[in-house]
């Protein structure tokens, strides 16, 4: 065994040495996460994939810290084949195994090589095998003696694994490989066990729940030491990622809600706002020193290590002795480790939205004046910063670098709201979807400014990019009196979650140059063409409700746009009086509208689609369905110029492909 271990170390050292010597193409994690999807179909990607397959052990996992894109010599390939049966040094530390699984998924999305699929599934099976019966995971599996056996949150190891389990159990589009129902169910059980482990390991300080440690004992769940300078402590960094994972759970249990609220309170209590880290670098950009500078009103940061009994930050060198300040430890550890983090700020930013969505009442302190943190409160009773939403929008900074939250308390706000092009990164957050209502009653006749009057009828108009809304009702209250927009979005990267959008004709207008927009868990109702426009828009898990016989969509998709309106896992419902509703008609002849996995009520007409008396639209528009159900889904009776997608065609309609954006994966934040 000793000889085998020495051999493994020697082989990996020689490979890593070759890697560092060649270093021809970025860093391995950069390749996985930053390339466009199409790159994974190139010969270069396929060549790298062969390396990744070689590095994967028969047990299913991978070793860590390998630059897998580096070219291997024939001898190195032979050595890796010899190591296939070895179970030494296989880990999820430093994102190992999890990141290689993501790479294989991206490869399989472009190249249907069954080896990629098999590799991903082997990795998934490795994660199943590595999980403790109590729901946690060790750092190395098979188990490696020492602190490696502890339940490991360090460097997001367990969070990374549980994120995979969540995507698999939710059957989301994040991974291109779709496991069997049996594996999906296994992933769900694994995820639930993991969450239960997280809840059991949340540390109680004097009887009060706080946060988590980087490692917990695999038997007792108690805080545990790792390396000499990584003593048992409450972790500012790891705890943030754990809470964000918990916040992603749909319909959280009371225990999860308590865990999140307790951690949020702890983050508020432990934030440091009078220090900034100053990094000194040499000409090559390498950090040669770090100093903490006293700075009044600094952006909040948190210590990586805090005392278990009083949250006091501490720092350790390789001697394992606690120090009170960073400058008391040697340069090697001071400069080579992350002692502070700003990760919890994401939890604090997202907490109001999460709280509103899950019916968690915010305290007065949480909804108080936070303008310095780009946070504004609107309340009709005068308890907030403003009584009108538009006044809050007008007070927001122009072109901010970070999100600006406008929190709207319950009430009916009878006003016409415009979010201008310069007010980017606005997050409009309601206290509750049912009781936070923005309503106005403009319509075409009331505006009466000519043929374009429709576009001035909005209740809420969004022009600023990177907009989000949640827990709000947008309503045009004019009734069935012609065109009357409730919500008009002419911005890029707009995300609307858990909202009601209510109106009659032309309820929801979606446009903007090359605009990508995302609607999730929303209720949208109307009469004629009540979802219309030129934007690329994805609707997931939404209820689309027709009030009378007419048309649901009227897309005006530009000619060279790949996707138009896409409805996935939506439910199409109607009032009893509505018994003959079309899925869509082309406002412009290149319209694109697709329904995937939707439940269609019997109000949907058998022919499905209408050409709006435009014969040329039958040649140019693209109307399609896939794997829908319900009495309204009658594929054999649809108009001949519409389409029923094949499984392979439907796979192209993933959230990543539809909402692909050159700036960021904004829709997943």
Describe the structure.
There is one protein chain. The protein is of the alpha/beta class and 669 residues long. It folds into 3 domains: 1-193, Glycosyltransferase (Alpha/alpha barrel); 202-366, Glycosyltransferase (Alpha/alpha barrel), CATH 1.50.10.20; 410-423 and 433-668, Single-stranded right-handed beta-helix, Pectin lyase-like (Pectate Lyase C-like, 3 Solenoid), CATH 2.160.20. 28% of the residues lie in helices and 20% in strands. The protein is built from 17 helices and 36 strands. It has an 11-stranded parallel β-sheet, sandwiched between helices. Strands 13-16-19-22-25-28-31-34 form an 8-stranded parallel β-sheet, with no helix packed on it. The protein has a 7-stranded parallel β-sheet with strand order 14-17-20-23-26-29-32. It is globular and about 80 Å long. It starts with a helix and ends in an 11-residue tail after the last helix. Belongs to the pectinesterase family. InterPro entries: Pectate_lyase, Pectin_lyas_fold, Pectin_lyase_fold/virulence, Pectinesterase_Asp_AS, Pectinesterase_cat, Pectinesterase_Tyr_AS. It is an enzyme of class 3 (hydrolase). It comes from Flavobacterium bizetiae. Residues 377-660 form the Pectinesterase catalytic domain.
The amount of beta strand, in percent, is 15-25%
- What is the number of E strands? 36
Helical fraction: 25-40%
How many domains, as an integer?
3
Low-pLDDT stretches: 1-24, 368-372
The backbone outline, from C-alpha atoms, is: globular
Question: What is the strand arrangement across the widest sheet?
Answer: 11-12-15-18-21-24-27-30-33-35-36
The CATH architecture of the largest domain can be given as: 3 Solenoid
Query: Could you state the CATH homologous superfamily of the largest domain?
Result: Single-stranded right-handed beta-helix, Pectin lyase-like
CATH class of the largest domain: Mainly Beta
Indicate the structural class.
alpha/beta
Helical run tally: 17
What CATH calls the topology of the largest domain is Pectate Lyase C-like
Q: Average the pLDDT over all residues and give the rounded result.
A: 91
Report the major sheet: 11 strands, parallel
What's the gyration radius in Å? 27 Å
| Quaternary structure | single chain
């Amino acid at each position: 065994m000793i000889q085998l271990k020495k051999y493994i170390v020697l082989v990996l050292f020689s490979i890593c040495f070759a890697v560092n010597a060649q270093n021809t193409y970025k860093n391995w994690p950069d390749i996985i996460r930053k390339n466009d999807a199409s790159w994974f179909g190139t010969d270069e990607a396929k060549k790298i994939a062969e390396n990744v397959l070689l590095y994967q052990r028969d047990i299913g996992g991978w070793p860590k810290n390998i630059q897998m894109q580096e070219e291997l010599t024939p001898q190195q390939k032979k050595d890796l084949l010899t190591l296939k049966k070895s179970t030494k040094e296989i880990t999820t530390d430093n994102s190992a195994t999890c990141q290689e699984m993501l790479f294989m998924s991206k490869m399989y999305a472009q190249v249907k090589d069954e080896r990629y699929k098999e590799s991903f599934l082997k990795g998934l099976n490795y994660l199943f095998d590595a999980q403790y019966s109590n729901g946690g995971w060790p750092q190395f599996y098979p188990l490696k003696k020492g602190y490696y056996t502890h339940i490991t949150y360090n460097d997001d190891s367990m969070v990374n694994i549980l994120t995979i389990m969540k995507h698999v159990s939710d059957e989301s589009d994040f991974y291109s490989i779709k496991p069997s129902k049996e594996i999906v169910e296994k992933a769900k059980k694994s995820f639930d066990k993991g969450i239960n482990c997280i809840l059991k390991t949340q540390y109680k300080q004097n009887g009060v729940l706080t946060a988590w440690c980087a490692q917990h004992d695999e038997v007792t769940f108690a805080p545990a030491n790792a390396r000499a300078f990584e003593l048992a402590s409450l972790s500012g960094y790891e705890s943030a990622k754990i809470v964000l994972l918990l916040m992603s759970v749909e319909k959280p249990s009371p225990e999860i809600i308590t865990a999140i609220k307790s951690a949020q309170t702890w983050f508020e209590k432990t934030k440091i706002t009078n220090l900034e880290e100053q990094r000194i670098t040499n000409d090559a950009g390498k950090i040669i020193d770090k100093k903490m500078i006293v700075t009044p009103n600094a952006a909040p940061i948190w210590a990586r290590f805090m005392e278990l009994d009083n949250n006091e930050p501490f720092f350790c060198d390789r001697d394992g002795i606690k120090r009170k300040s960073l400058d008391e430890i040697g340069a090697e550890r001071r400069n080579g480790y992350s002692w502070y983090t700003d990760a919890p700020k994401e939890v604090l930013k997202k907490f109001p939205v999460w709280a509103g969505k899950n019916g968690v009442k915010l305290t007065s302190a949480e909804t108080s004046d936070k303008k310095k943190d780009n946070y504004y409160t609107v309340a009709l009773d005068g308890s907030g910063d403003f009584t009108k939403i538009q006044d809050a929008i007008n007070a927001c900074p122009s072109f901010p670098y970070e999100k600006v939250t406008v929190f709207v308390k319950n009430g009916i706000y009878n006003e016409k709201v415009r979010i201008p092009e310069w007010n980017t990164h606005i997050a409009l957050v309601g206290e509750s979807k049912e009781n936070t209502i923005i309503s106005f009653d403009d319509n075409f006749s009331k505006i009466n400014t000519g043929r374009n009057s429709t576009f001035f009828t909005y209740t809420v108009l969004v022009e600023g990019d990177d907009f989000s809304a949640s827990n709000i009702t947008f309503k045009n209250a004019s009734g069935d009196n012609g065109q009357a927009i409730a919500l008009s979005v002419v911005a890029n990267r707009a995300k609307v979650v858990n909202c009601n959008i209510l109106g009659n004709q032309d309820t929801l207008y979606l446009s903007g140059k090359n605009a990508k927009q995302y609607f999730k868990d929303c209720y949208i109702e109307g009469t004629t063409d009540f979802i219309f426009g030129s934007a690329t828009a994805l609707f997931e898990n939404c209820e689309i409700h027709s009030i009378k016989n007419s048309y649901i969509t009227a897309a005006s998709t530009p000619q060279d746009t790949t996707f138009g309106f896409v409805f996935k896992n939506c439910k199409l419902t109607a009032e009893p009086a509505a018994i003959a509703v079309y899925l869509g008609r082309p406002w412009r002849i290149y319209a694109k509208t697709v329904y995937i996995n939707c439940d269609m009520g019997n109000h949907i007409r058998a022919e499905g689609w209408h050409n709006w008396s435009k014969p040329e639209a039958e040649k140019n528009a693209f109307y399609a369905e896939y794997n829908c159900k319900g009495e309204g889904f009658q594929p054999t009776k649809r108009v001949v110029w519409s389409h029923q997608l094949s499984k392979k065609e439907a796979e192209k309609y993933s959230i990543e492909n539809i909402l692909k954006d050159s700036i960021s994966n904004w829709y997943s934040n």
